[in-house]
Amino acid sequence: MDGSRKEEEEDSTFTNISLADDIDRSSKILYPRHESLLPKMMNADMDAVDAENQVELEEKTRLINQVLELQHTLEDLSARVDAVKEENLKLKSENQVLGQYIENLMSASSVFQTTDTKSKRK
Asked: Does position 115 have pLDDT exceeding 80, yes or no?
């Protein structure tokens, strides 16, 4: 019985003591900052990525707003060009009418009649 009792003690000793627990505890003691730094570093990296994403998002938003503003300006300028073209055509038409009217007045008036200078000299 003495032999079997000794084996039981050895078995219980090996069963109760876990090397993995000792390694985990020793790593916490030897490297306590490693585990606590890792999440902080990850959080810092995530914050940096979030900050970069925020800056990129703000830049994209600013550019989109600028593009939209330029599109509205272009639409306004295009509408203005169309209006000026219509007004130009209208004024050209009015000028043609006035030119024809002036020609008719001049041909009807004796003051603006062409004179034959040779016949008057004789």
From this structure: no
